[in-house]
Write a structure and sequence with these properties.
Layout (H helix, E strand, L loop, with lengths): L4 E4 L3 H12 L4 E5 L12 E4 L5 H9 L3 E4 L6 H8 L8 E2 L3 H4 L5 H10 L7 E4 L10 E4 L10 E4 L2 H11 L4 E5 L5 E9 L5 E3 L3 E6 L2 E7 L5 H18 L3 E9 L5 E7 L9 H4 L4 H9 L14 E7 L9 H7 L4 E4 L10 E8 L6 H13 L14
Parallel strand pairs: 1-2, 1-4, 2-3, 4-5
Antiparallel strand pairs: 6-9, 7-8, 7-9, 10-11, 10-12, 10-14, 12-13, 13-16, 14-15, 16-18, 17-18
Helix pairs in contact: 1-9, 2-3, 10-11
Length: about 375
């Protein structure tokens, strides 16, 4: 009998985990405050409560054998206290406390990566009393930043002053701006027995700190991809990690790399794996945390392009005309979120066999149709190879 997996969170990542759980005959229970969240309808059971609600967490623990996470908004102290209670010690937490503790706070994460010898940008702990150490400056909220909401690029001291007033926090992670040529991502899963399975390196593209598209395999030299995979293996081993982990990197014009962020969960940069790999990131995470053998991570296409379908208006709409036309070009995933707002991730499309030289043309075509309401009869499918 399969163990029941509990997921803290109910958004699109939990929704895709729930789909994978059905494929693997794994019962899945989610905790989320919103009954309209995507994962609720697909879950075996659910708890409607905020992620740091003690009563809700107790109900989640009562109904699962393995606990995992959709996001980093985790109250580790509260969970530890609850797990000390009689009956909850049977629940296995994956990734575990030792893995999560250095990663949930972005400043702590930076310090930890530096102690491992991983290449990182120059960084500081910044308080409202501190002048900007350099400009331009990238400022990141230490906790609860998501989809660009916790990241700002600061060009002037006045902008930094305005940020302190808007955020009202005691300190932030500040980094020297990195003039990168590409942004890259690596997904890898580690089994409780120490086995590691790594996915190909992807190129990602952000606008206003929100991911617009991902392409795999990244058009970088093989030596760069090998270096990133080695760095990721070091991180997984040092953390004694269990589950799927995502790392994001800056690729510089001189061929060097710097770590951008670590996400202890499934990740937007890995959505292409649903259609372009033997084993998706969601199936792989479930395999790892339930101690099942890890799956094959090989690509099944010459090139996979994933484009996020982002909200471009404030409205309540199912965008069916766009989705139907996009579905002629690739596989569309619609998260069922209501309502739409600018920048909100509403779904994504994956297009296979896209040559690296055609990334820009395909992205422009997808985004043009998406934002036009589907009223673009002039658009025809580009050729894939």
């Amino acid at each position: 009998m399969q163990p029941t997996v509990g997921v803290l969170g109910g958004g699109q990542l939990a929704w895709m985990l729930a789909q994978a759980a059905r494929d693997l005959d794994i019962p899945l229970w989610v905790q989320t405050p919103n009954p309209a969240d995507p994962a609720v309808a697909l879950s075996t059971g659910h708890t409607l409560a905020p992620c740091d609600d003690p009563a809700g967490l107790e109900q989640l623990l009562q109904n699962c054998d393995v606990l995992t996470f959709e996001n980093e908004w985790i109250n580790l102290g509260l969970l530890k206290e609850l797990l000390k209670k009689s009956g909850y010690s049977r629940v296995v937490v994956r990734p575990g406390w030792q893995s999560l503790a250095p990663l949930l706070d972005k400043y702590d994460q930076r310090c930890y990566a530096q102690t491992l010898g991983l290449p990182v940008p120059e960084f500081w702990l910044l308080t409202p009393a501190d002048p900007p150490p350099t400009l331009p400056l990238v400022v990141k909220a230490r906790r609860h930043g998501y989809d660009g909401g916790g990241t700002r690029i600061i060009h002037t001291p006045a902008e930094l002053t305005a940020l302190w007033q808007a955020w009202n926090v005691a300190s932030v992670l500040a980094e020297a701006y990195v003039p990168f040529s590409q942004e890259l991502a690596v997904l890898a899963a580690r089994h409780p027995n120490g086995t590691v399975a790594t996915y190909p390196v992807s190129q990602t593209h952000q606008v206003n700190q929100i991911c617009r598209w991902v392409y795999t395999p990244a058009p970088v030299p093989a030596a760069v991809a090998q270096t990133l995979q080695q760095h990721t293996h070091i991180l997984l081993g040092a953390l004694a990690y269990e589950g799927l982990l995502a790392t994001e990197w800056f690729y510089l014009p001189d061929g060097s790399v710097l770590l951008n962020e670590i996400a202890p969960r499934t990740h937007n940069s890995g959505h292409y794996t649903l259609d372009a790999c033997v084993t998706s990131q969601f199936h792989q995470h479930l395999r790892a945390i339930t101690a099942a053998p890890l799956g094959n991570t090989d690509l099944t296409t010459t090139g996979a392009l994933m484009v996020n379908l982002l909200g471009y208006e404030t409205a309540t709409h199912d965008y069916l005309p766009q989705r139907q036309q996009l579905g002629q070009w690739g596989q569309v995933y619609w998260y069922g979120k209501k309502p739409s707002r600018p920048g909100r991730k509403l779904g994504h499309i994956t297009i296979l066999n896209v040559p690296a030289d055609d990334i820009t043309a395909w992205v422009e075509q997808v985004e043009s149709l998406w934002s036009s309401g589907g009223n673009r009869p002039d658009l025809v499918e580009l050729k894939t190879r």
